[in-house]
Request: fold
Amino acid sequence: MDDFSIIGKNVPYTDAKEKITGKAIYAADFRLPTMLHGKILRSPYPSAKIVHIDTTKAERLPGVHSIATAFNTPGTKFGPTKSDERLFAKERVHYIGDDVAAVAAIDVDTAKEALGLIEVEYEILPAVFDPFEAMQPNAPIVHEDMETNVCHHIELHRGDIQRGFDEAFVIHEERYYLQHQYQAYIETNGATAAWQGDRLTVWAPIQTARILATVICDAFGIPRGSFRFLQTYIGGGFGGKAYQRVCLITAALARVAGAPVQIILDREEDMESTLPRVPMFIDLKMGVTKEGYITAKDAKIVADNGAYTAMGVVVVDTASTRVDSLYRLSNVHVIADLVYTNKVPTGMFRGFGNPQAHFAVESMMDTLAEKLGIDSAEIRLKNATRTGDVTVHGWKIDSCGLSDSIRVAAKASGWVEKRGKQKEKARGIGMACGLHVSGNRAIAPAGDGASSQVRIHEDGSVHVATSEGDIGQGANTIFAQIAAEVLSVPYDTVYVDPLDTDVTYFGVGAGASRVTMMGGNAVKAGALAARERLIDAAADRWECKRSDIVLVKGILVNQITEAEMTIGEAATHYIGMTGGSRLMGEGFFRAEGVVVPDKTKYGNISLAYSFATHVAEVEVDLETGQVEILKMTAAHDSGRVINPRAFEGQVEGGLAMGIWYGVGEQLVFDKGRVLNPTFTDYKVPTIRDIPKLEVHIVGKEDPNGPFGAKSVGEMAMVPTAPAIANAIYDAIGIRFTELPITPEKILKAIEERRKNGSFQR
Amino acid sequence: MTKYSILTPTGLDEALELLEKHSGNIKPLAGGTDLLIDFRYGKPAPEFLLDITCIPELNRVKVNGDIRIGPATNLTDVSQSNEIKSWYAMLAEGAGCVGSYQIRNLATIGGNICNAVPSADTAPPLLAADASVKMRSKAGERTMPVAAFFLGPRKNALQPGELVTEIELPTLKERTGSIYKRYTHRKALDLAVVGVAVQLTLTPSLEIENVAVALGAVAPVPLRVEAAEKLLVGNPYSEELAEEAAELAKKFAKPISDVRSSAEYRQKIVRVFVKRSIAEAHQRAISARSGE
Reply:
């Protein structure tokens, strides 16, 4: 391994102190002079016609400043992938939570009170909640101006699916259901917006500035140059803050008010109106040879879009294809439909459709292995994608530690000793594998890449700016480590700027687990460019050849004369030398060889792919159905790890989120209404619910990653839930195909089998 | 915006005085971990809140053979009191599992019973303990069994002008063991889907001399399962007997279905948890004997 001074070291997060001491400014802490506070009036009906809106009484309430509705704001349709949203509902509301009006007042309580004074007359219309019903020809149409509720339909063929099944020795078919999962970030969504003439500034915890900028300029019809976005500290995003309408509603209200406005969502409205994970029904059919090699995979996916699309289209594309590169497949067929319903719009969430598809495939791999009498680890090893493969969808796998991750996770967890051998204690051990991208060209069709500016001040301190964004995952820490390594300066002299689109260059943002790969490479390039400028300055000062100069521990050394100069001195000289330019390196990184997938979704969409294996150990209480998760072992190939502690934090967080995706979390609906929009009834795990987590690093250097690094953030929860389902099966011999696997479902299944005699314990 | 004044009496008489003076416009505040949330959700607040936690005589555990707990005693103190832990383990356990550390440091036992939600974790232990509730107003004092204090969800027996002044737990015989077990979806910071308290006293020859089985969260008020108690009394403990008692408890429980659990599942949990609680209370009763 190369000898690095900062790469691979456990340096603390750049923002740890600010966050721990409560000094970090989050969306709700942000203040502007003369700022008003806004609240949103939401539809109480899943589908209704708006007959009349009367805001007179609300306007008369002392302290109310302005009220925005469809009647005084732009009515243009917009959206990140489909133009199916408007700022405010004008004639129709499409789900319980749809934005109808917003009030700006001197304080939040006044704004809230005013909401109750707005009179809206609705005419209730038929609604549809089930995606299968919504696909029926006579179903109520969610969007009155569309002909069908099917928002997105794809069908893909690869190889010869029929021949694949003909060659199979065992074929299995199953329907899997994946539920609505809420991101449950600590910080709810919110924004502050201010207009100066036609120029709009938004301060918000948004992960991907670029999506927001595009949508906001569409919605308000303003040029891109008139929009400025400043990212506030993000109290957890997990994909849920890739795009949020509250930024647009706040901007609309601020324009009507003629004053800056801040809107912070209550937890309940955040849970009822933001973008939880896209629920999916996955009908999966797979065939394997007698030896366990996969011959065919056929999937039919029906996904519940909710009332608006956001990024649902790409989520469904991901669920339809990504898992196919985990194993060596040749014959693949998939049909997927994304269907509008009168429920909360769904969207981006850690894994982006991939955990859903992995649950189906990785559950079925165990079923197939059992039917063949092959060990679960072995069937995975047999089929595992390997370094150098070009997968069924044309993905180039330049580094792949999948097989290593299976072996390491199996060995560390005592797989051979425990698998199938603890049934008398109702204990089980289960495994699942996964892969994820490190960037996804499909979300950046114009071109994927990243940029950086690395500026060196006269005192030698370093500023790094990108448009990527730290959402708590530690991006700024990784950037600072990379810049410090290249410039050979101490880590704590590097400062990473907050994202400000007026200053920073192009960036796609924190999505598709792309930030370390793209942003990291851009920062590396920027730091290398800055290093060249330092050498320029020193060569000018010393009147020597550039090649005489080396940079060692932040000091420029003339190898001939042994003269030395700090980088601060060089940066100072550079200003005089150039007539005023600060010493700056600009870094640009283009994802070479990555393509927008074609119509058939063929093409290498990412520069690198991460792999992992999770092993779950569980014990089931046969009388109550409760599952005790005893231990999780995770082995990850994320290439070279730049910050092991940050990496472990990502994996541990992903495991916690994945465990409860598997056994606990679910938004429950009744006729379109969320029945559990509070943390009292939507349970996320506490620290006591999380078992011992053991994290192993199995990755080797990836040829494309900065210093060989690949992604980890989303990968961390992709295989967790199926590992648990497989462990429960090992413990009690019952296969659960619907998430979450609750104690109530387990007990019901046990009792049914006790009744028919197939469960003897 | 919810606006109210908080009154901070330093003695019981002053508190009763204020209660009478502002009658109809005042509510006792005993921690506020339920009350303030109600206001946030739009329930109208009275003009005055009477903070009883600053009254020393309401905020302590007094032991003199019996145990008397002031209603303003916070749940951390209840769960950590040595006397309560050794005599009424079930109450220490009930108080110790409410909410989180932060909530238990504010929430009080008086607040927990006066708020009277069916899932209150101190209710089944108090019911199983045959606790009584002492109440006082300007007009006088009265005492009633805790069983009579709970009238329905969020309804208690307090009259206007009355304050709970003490919760009394009787002196216990040796060879008594108790336990509170609750079913929750996660291990902390959760509400009971089912709560079970069992207190069991053995004769010197190890027959069950006395037993109380109390259930929470399965009916509008916490319940004693007398049929199960009758079945157990006079017999030595056996698994079969506990199983039979548990079956009676299951039939007796009348839970509802909600987003937290179906009624059927709650009933099944009642059976399992009553059975296990009887077994563990019995074990504790035996060790209580051998420990002496």
